[in-house]
Amino acid sequence: MGWIHDSGYRPAYAHEGYPASVLLDGTDTGSSSRQIEPSVVGWRAACECGWRGGQFYPRAEWPSSTGMAPEGVEGWQSGTGTFSEWQRHLDRALPELAVHDLARTLAVTEMRLREAVDTARRAGLSWSRIGAVAGMTGEQAVRRLSIEPRSAPPRGPIHDRRDRMPPRHKPASR
Ligand SMILES: [Zn+2]
């Protein structure tokens, strides 16, 4: 049982989060206990990269008959508890992740927009009408929203520059 940020950004897959079971001596098990475990005294947020959350969730305050973190501690459904701590860790460890995800959403939205424009064109709408609806001139609409790249005017030179791979998040010592 763990949390993965599954949006296709490869470095994010090195960060699998989970509520780690904390034992009586203060160490954690490095896993989320699935078995009935009397020695579990609480939980803290953890990540496969070695990160640990600062907050301790005592079992005395969060009853659990099995030793597994209850939902109030895990917070997966409500976006609270150990899950929200791990999300903040992920944001700090991979600040570019939000850029990746939003760019991906934007690309999907652009594709849908072009398809909608194509449908409108087939229905007989003029480019100037489409442009007016989209908040641009007809000429801009042809250039930006046309689904057939050949009918669009050339965009001028665009140099595709590949960024170097971001540095891997270095696992912290346990
Ligand atoms: Zn991590």
Keywords, separated by commas or semicolons:
174 residues; alpha+beta; 3-stranded antiparallel sheet; 5 helices; disordered C terminus
Describe the protein's topology.
Layout: E1 17-23, E2 40-47, E3 57-58, H1 71-74, H2 81-93, H3 97-122, H4 127-134, H5 138-145
Antiparallel strand pairs: 1-2, 2-3
The chain binds zinc ion.
Fold and architecture overview:
By secondary structure, the chain is an alpha+beta fold. The protein folds into 2 domains: about 10-95, no CATH class; about 95-150. Helices cover about 35% and strands about 10% of the residues. The chain has 5 helices and 3 strands, in the order βββααααα. The chain has helices spanning about 70-75, 80-95, 95-120, 125-135, 140-145; strands spanning about 15-25, 40-45, 55-60. The protein has a 3-stranded antiparallel sheet. α4 (about 125-135) crosses α5 (about 140-145). The longest helix has 26 residues, at about 95-120. The relative contact order is 0.13. Residues about 150-174 have low confidence and may be disordered. Zinc ion binds next to α2.
